[in-house]
Amino acid sequence: MDYGDYEGVMGLEVHAHLLTESKIFCGCSTKFGAEPNSHTCPTCMGLPGALPVLNKKVVEFAIKLGLALHCSINPRSIFARKNYYYPDLPKGYQISQYEEPICGNGWLDIVMDGKTKRIRILRIHMEEDAGKLVHERTIDTSSYSMVDYNRSSTPLLEIVSEPDLRTPEEATAYLKALRDILMYLEICDGNMEEGSFRCDANVSVRKKGDETFGTRAELKNLNSFRYIERSLDYEIDRQIALIKKGGSVVQETRLFNAEQGVTYSMRGKEEAHDYRYFPEPDLLPVTVDEAWVDEVGKTLPELPMEKMERFMKDYGLPRYDVEILASDRELAAYFEAVLKLFPEAKTVSNFIMTEFLRELKDGNISPKDSPVTPARLAELLTLIKDGTISNKIGKEIFPEIYRTGASPREYVKKKGLLQISDEGAIEGIIDAVIARSPREVADFRAGKEKLIGFFVGQVMRETKGKANPALLNELLLKKLKG
Description:
Layout: E1 6-17, H1 56-68, E2 72-73, E3 76-77, E4 79-83, E5 93-97, E6 103-112, E7 115-128, E8 132-137, E9 143-148, E10 155-161, H2 168-184, E11 197-207, E12 217-222, H3 225-244, E13 252-257, E14 262-268, E15 278-279, E16 286-287, H4 290-297, H5 304-315, H6 319-325, H7 329-341, H8 345-363, H9 374-385, H10 391-404, H11 408-415, H12 423-435, H13 438-445, H14 452-462, H15 469-481
Parallel strand pairs: 12-13
Antiparallel strand pairs: 1-10, 1-11, 2-6, 3-16, 4-5, 4-15, 6-7, 7-10, 8-9, 11-12, 13-14
Helix pairs in contact: 2-3, 5-6, 7-9, 12-14, 12-15, 14-15
């Protein structure tokens, strides 16, 4: 997006729910969607005398993400109390990290218009989530709110970027890349609808070429890529218009109204001193030695950017293809499993990105749960390649094969869909079509060679789409030009 003489300056604070079975400081379940207030205990409710105990898995996940984002892993980090009142915060404070986080000084590369841009990561820290307010409205239009503490003390990693983002498109690319990494590492499910992956954005504007930052506003609780891009674009436009009129941007927290497409003021922006941070007295400092970091490092998978580069280099695929295939770890694995059985990368890529992904989306399932195994898809592609069926027939029958999980070869035999490659049989049908189309034949021979499509269509209709396309075109041209 173009903002004329101005540019946006954005830094993002991403909150990622971790895929641990229990909460960060107690043994309560983190499972989503349970009966309200059923996953609670004295510790996550902040009752007197209850003491927190740190979940080791949370630290391991933090180290894993830190390594994936090229961060330094601090050998010593400290939890702090972030004090503020909110109805869904039972203790009256949130246990987080402030002055000494577990990870810092990393980076994440994004690709925009074919160019790589590096976004610096300021810090990654561990913290607990708050509960959730459920707002209801009665028949007489009065409203009330209820509190569900199931989410209270769910483990989070907060990933804070430097203000290196300049456009909403860059911000979206950064968030998608970060989400892909979290899901590759299998430490977050990335579900934005359930709030497992959400972000706050610090937004300011300045004249292009200026080095100093403007006054920033914070946009809270953005949990959709579409809404993130719309809200950032609106906020940048709002601030530019305000400055052009001679006004000043106020440091505040704002929310995004998706229906109206506008941001609006929620409250004045808090500073760190407003939260009265101090070290959490009930938790010891977190110590991480090199041996633990090395141990976690050995578990890192090949990450999305690395996989994309390998797919382009080893398989000769274009960037567009690899960005789709490598965005999902399961999809990338499925692609390579098919490729082992049918080693034609572009053919496999094309079919997966069109027919296969369409069926996955319609069924809302993951590649590993697909009823069409890699072996079945390879079998179908082999039938197309060796001329048993046409590409058109292959695409037409794929939804049924997907629905039933049937063997493509057996399905083709059962339905009588074998491709006609008998030269004599096709010639006979071509002769009949030519005989009843004298005007079209004359026009073709007079130079209207686009009419070849007419003849192909007629023969395909007669053969119910089963004529071998290559052989059909060869024989047609021979007959028409002869």
